[in-house]
Amino acid sequence: MSRATFHFHDTLTFFLPRRWQAGLIEHEFIWRASVKDMIESLGVPHAEVELIVANHAAVDFAYIVQPDDRINVYPRFDLVDLPDKVPLRPPLPAAPSFVLDQHLGRLAAYLRMMGFDTLYRNNYHDEELAQVSHDENRVLLTRDVGLLKRSLVIYGYYVRATHREPQLVEITRRFNLPTHAEPFKHCMKCNGLLHPVVKAAVLDQLPDGTARYYDEFHRCQTCQRIYW
């Protein structure tokens, strides 16, 4: 029986059982495995990990855990000052795009309202979510830890909050969204692109009284919904 010490830092302790909430685990193993596989066997999805340090040296997910290794696992690349850090995935675009699971429909609407390209359907299967996230370099937002452990997922995040307003605050802080917000860019209903439209062109589509109080309007190029 071999043993390695894992120390999970900061927000990663969220995924650990109560007895390991301090983040320090003496892990016994009898098989040869990558550090990615061992991290996930302890409960932490690889998509939430940004830096791994084994015996004071940064390693990637393919590193094979050795007996008596001391492994530190971090949720953010900037949490430790270390030379020759090893990125675990390519950097996200400055303005991230998202795909959300079926439990996060209201959050999807809010992200679109802020101007972020956000895919959502209430009938996505897990396999499809993982594939879309991988193929289109989208951040997969989910309330399903198992989904984040799928090998296809490169960028992902488990939404901790259970109500929509705290969820939006959480995602806004995690991905620094205010810097890249572009309101009236995406349709809240279908994610289509919005474009300005003159008032006269939409008068017959407006609710009673709307034209009296508003002069600026946008229309979705996909579903034709009007915004003011």
Mean pLDDT across all amino acids:
95
Question: How many strand units?
Answer: 12
Give the neighbour order of strands across the main sheet.
Answer: 2-1-5-3-4
Uncertain stretches of 5 or more adjacent residues: none
Radius of gyration: 22 Å
Residue share in β-strands:
15-25%
- Count of helix runs: 7
Shape: elongated
Main sheet record: 5 strands, mixed
Q: SSE order, as H and E? A: EEHEEEEHEHEHEHEHHEE
Helix content: 10-25%
The N- and C-terminal alpha carbons lie at a distance of: 66 Å
Number of domains: 3
Brief digest:
By secondary structure, this protein is α/β, with parallel strands linked by helices.
Write structural notes for this entry.
- α2 packs across α5 (164-174).
- The chain starts with a strand and ends with a strand.
- It folds into three domains: 2-74, Ubiquitin-like (UB roll) (Roll), CATH 3.10.20.30; 98-180; 194-227, no CATH class.
- The protein has helices at 35-41, 105-113, 126-135, 145-148, 164-174, 199-202, 210-213; strands spanning 2-8, 24-29, 51-54, 57-59, 70-74, 98-100, 118-120, 139-142, 156-158, 194-197, 217-220, 226-227.
- With 228 residues, the chain is an alpha/beta fold.
- The strands form three sheets. The chain has a five-stranded mixed beta sheet with strand order 2-1-5-3-4, with no helix packed on it. A four-stranded parallel beta sheet has the order 7-6-8-9, with helices on both faces.
